[in-house]
Design brief:
This protein has 247 residues and is mainly α. It has one domain (58-87, 97-246). The protein is 72% helix and 4% strand. It has 10 helices and 3 strands. A 3-stranded antiparallel sheet has the order 2-1-3. It starts with a helix and ends with a helix. The mean pLDDT is 91.
Length: 247
């Protein structure tokens, strides 16, 4: 059934499906062992990873692996300081809702590509990963390097970690993280070289949208951080899809 759904996907044979399942299982176990995710997060991440791998292949999985490495490393930079400020991630890792908020757009974009063969959906999927990398690395590095941030809506100084706060070092680091995701996508031929800039630009725009939502609706308690992350990745994916169709 999955083979027929993913008519244009990578996992066109039972053998490839088995490879996707095996790699997914190993990746989920490793992520859990490194405390990047808790049990529910590992299960949610495994589902997203499998759909991405089966639909778009090993090179697309490499972008997801890069996202995990960069977010895991940046989260642990200055962990004691973040813990003292109440900004640190839980030691047991991210839960299912946190994982899905960042990966569901990528997983769905990959599945649509597998079903239709329209490679613009792959650009959108990579852009959603680039946004997740850009936003997470920008936030974690900003909290690590700067004691204060600037509110994106008013530019007033606020404590590091405030919803809607941004820093220059964090933004630069986040942009670099998005570029890494896009470059891996190009090297693996998930996206064409001519469209390298699309996930980078869309990911950075998504990060700014994340900050705007954080400074407004999340700051007022109307939506959760997970919802903000989901909408930001969705915005990045939608923008990248539109740009990919135009270029």
């Amino acid at each position: 059934m999955l083979n027929s759904l993913l008519a244009h996907g990578w996992a066109s044979t039972p053998e490839r499906l088995a490879i996707a399942a095996g790699v997914t299982l190993g990746f989920a176990v490793l992520a859990y062992a490194l405390r990047g995710v808790n049990r529910s997060g590992a299960l949610a991440g495994a589902l997203a990873c499998f759909l991405l791998f089966a639909s778009a292949g090993p090179s697309a999985f490499a972008t997801l692996a890069a996202l995990f490495v960069m977010t895991w490393a940046s989260t642990r930079m200055g962990y004691r300081r973040k813990l003292a400020l109440g900004l640190a991630e839980p030691r047991e890792g991210r839960n299912a809702w946190q994982v899905l908020a960042n990966l569901v757009v990528t997983a769905l974009g990959s599945v649509v590509f597998g079903a239709t063969g329209n490679r613009a959906w792959l650009v959108a999927a990579v852009a959603a990963l680039a946004e997740a990398a850009t936003d997470t690395v920008a936030s974690e590095i900003g909290q690590y390097r700067e004691p204060a941030a600037r509110m994106i809506t008013t530019w007033e100084r606020v404590p590091a970690g405030t919803d809607g706060g941004i820093t220059i070092p964090g933004s630069i680091a986040g942009l670099a993280a998005g570029l890494v995701i896009a470059m891996i996508g190009v090297m693996g031929r998930t996206i064409p070289q001519s469209q390298l800039w699309v996930p980078v630009a869309a990911g950075f725009a998504g990060m700014l949208i994340d900050s705007l939502l954080g400074a407004t609706v999340q700051h007022r308690g109307w939506i959760s951080n997970q919802a903000v992350n989901f909408f930001a990745t969705m915005a990045a994916g939608a923008l990248a899809y539109a740009l990919a169709m135009l270029t």
